[in-house]
Amino acid sequence: MYSFNNQKREITFKKYNTPTPWMNYLSNGTFHTMMSQAGGGVAFYKSPQIWRINHYKFFHVPTDRSGFYTYIKDGGEYWCPTNEPCKTKPEKWQSTHGMGYTRFEAERKGVSVTATYFVGEYENALIWNLKLKSDSDKHITLFPYVELGMMEFMRELQWQCYNKHQLSCYNMEDVLVYKYGVETQPKPDETPLVYFAANVPVTAFDCDRDEFVGAYRSEENPQRVELGNCSKSTMYGGDPCFALQLEIELKANEEKEVNIFLGTAMTEEDIRKSVENCRKTDFVEKSFKGLAEKWDAHLSKFQCKIPDKDAETMINIWNPYQAERNFQFSRNISYYATGTFRGVGVRDTAQDILAMVPFDLRRAKDKLNLLFTQQYNDGHCNHYCFPTEGWEPVTRIHSDNHLWLVMACYHIVIEEGKLDYLDEVVEFYDGGSATVWEHIKKSIDFCLANLGECGFPLMLSSDWNDMLYKVCREGKGESIWTSMQFGTVLRQIAEIADLKGEDGSKYLETYEQQKKLVNEIAWDGEWYRRCITDEGTFIGSEKEPQAKIWLNTQSWSVISGMGDNGTQAMDNVKKYLDTDLGIKKIHPSMTTDYPTKDGNLTMYNKGCGENGSVFCHANTWAVIAECLLKRPENAYKYYHQLLPMVAQAQAGEWRYKAEPYVYCSNIFGPESDKFGLANVSWLTGTAAWMYVAVTQYMLGIRAKWDGLEIDPCLPKEMLPAKVTRVFRGKTYNITITKNEKKFISFDGKETDVII
Ligand code: NOJ
Description:
Blueprint: E1 2-5, E2 10-13, E3 23-27, E4 31-36, E5 41-45, E6 69-74, E7 77-79, E8 92-98, E9 101-108, E10 111-119, E11 125-134, E12 138-147, H1 153-163, E13 167-172, E14 175-180, E15 193-198, E16 204-208, H2 209-213, H3 223-227, E17 235-236, E18 240-250, E19 256-265, H4 268-278, H5 283-299, E20 302-305, H6 309-329, E21 344-345, H7 346-354, H8 361-372, E22 384-386, E23 391-394, H9 401-416, E24 425-427, E25 433-435, H10 436-449, E26 478-479, H11 480-499, H12 505-522, E27 531-532, E28 538-539, E29 549-550, H13 551-559, H14 566-577, E30 578-579, E31 582-583, E32 586-587, E33 614-615, H15 616-628, H16 632-640, H17 644-651, H18 653-656, E34 664-667, E35 678-681, H19 686-698, E36 701-704, E37 707-710, E38 721-727, E39 730-736, E40 742-745, E41 752-754
Parallel strand pairs: 39-41
Antiparallel strand pairs: 1-2, 2-8, 3-4, 4-5, 6-7, 6-12, 8-9, 9-10, 10-11, 11-19, 12-18, 13-14, 13-17, 14-15, 15-19, 16-18, 20-38, 21-22, 22-23, 24-25, 26-27, 27-28, 29-32, 30-31, 33-34, 34-35, 36-37, 37-40, 38-39
Bound molecules: 1-deoxynojirimycin.
């Protein structure tokens, strides 16, 4: 069904009809395309909310339509190298996702096509590179096709009957141009034109979707392809598309290359220049080479060789790749996320930064600075912001957002081994500006100013766990987990304060106060409780009928170093929460009238999502906790069972459904009717944290202020481990044969280490 080629950093699929679309993201940071294994997906310029290029039909089956299809008309029949959407299928076919590209290799009746799609560095365009060959002299007609939509998806849903008359799609010297002219669009001056061009002569085209597709037909059988000619339709008001008709002569066994460009530029003049550039002889090759070099440079910063090949595949390739995509797209658009209302989430992005730190400190700092612009003078943060769309942020106050900023900042400073970043000045959301150092101190101040009656941080609009939003409606509910998160970052800020020559001890005093509360008030006898409601009910207690034990307060009791009974707490994680497909977030799942009918915590079905699924994001913290407890077998069990290819094999492909090469956010739990169904793949905090868990805790390679600490916690399945890690510009070659701690001081002398 699929196979990995780690040499090439690729995964190849032998069948197109995977249980769900298995996606890839092609991007140069400005122009993006999410593409499935069958050529479906969505392209957008900067933002899928306001500059979406093609229709992405979430509610339709198959669920990856529309797409980036090229019909090949060969005599009386037509087919697509993407396999979909035609009824006539290639005789031989495979598709491959690689680092920033997706390739289709297909053959039918002696005609073979290799179609590689990617977005290069040099133009904002999705490049479709088609290599064509025939075993006999042949004339074929190509019809590359994109179904365009209104750029603002939400406006399209609501207003298309009026606004679609403000769209234009026309031919400009054999380059098709689409103009989104809607009068009330948010950023007209920054809205680009979209173009579609080829590097071979164009015989005809269509800009009107209905002319191209025909009545009561679909992408499967467009009338213009069937007829063998386009109608040269323009579209000034209506439903636009881009379709080209390209006549190609193939000589027996001679390869012909055709390139198609779906791009954006601000003016017609810019389009002309851009297309001219794209059509240059070496442009496509140079762009592809640039992409390969970029990923090579990125990924080579951390590479390992270990006996567990599935883990190796994830650590070296797919996990950092996924983490980079999360860093870039936050939780914006995926097969699961509609790309309509989520911009940059402060808590999510702050966590994504953790996995960018070892790769690119400047990118990590710039992103964190963006998050600091969402902080207020009192220290709290907006929940999401929309820097690209220019929309108002979501201003809900959560108990954890501001604390993640401290953690991300700590990781940056320690990786760099310099305090300079702390002096960068960033504006506050409500006016004025301050250094990064002042910003993170404000995060602590806000937490201190918002403690509840028991002394734990107030839950406010929820902590990390979205579902707890009803706990503090009257302003009294408290979060025990946030207390542990607070404790974790208090130790980090204390370390930075000392490095800065300021007194870190006041932070440690607060840490001790919170620690005392955790052990005196939060300890339930067998595990740590989760939170306290406005009414004073302890959620996550043996005394409660439901949701008795929660994963996060067990793992973070260890991570924070606060829990005197962390070992027992984690033993109970194993006993009550672990399954063969990962650790459930809570046990038992709740009914929709718990703790009270009016104050119920959830409407989720049992075992789904927030209510008792295997929440993969939170599983990563259990891996870390077990490493801190020095229990390699447990850490490995929790790590290994969630490797996407392992979980998929365990659940069965049809039950698991999602991609075997990227993590998902959660997997339906045993109390659901779909135990093993993976949900919300790609854009999830699991990516960053799993990467941190395996590289910094299992392999144990952690940046410290004055060097590199190697503190592995590996089972026999992962030993011996060889790691190459670039740290502060030097390459370290580390061989781990046993779980022993070693410190490499940063004097640059010792770069080859054997433990
Ligand atoms: C997904 C959300 O994006 C994230 O912000 C949240 O922390 C988790 N769900 C857990 O509720």
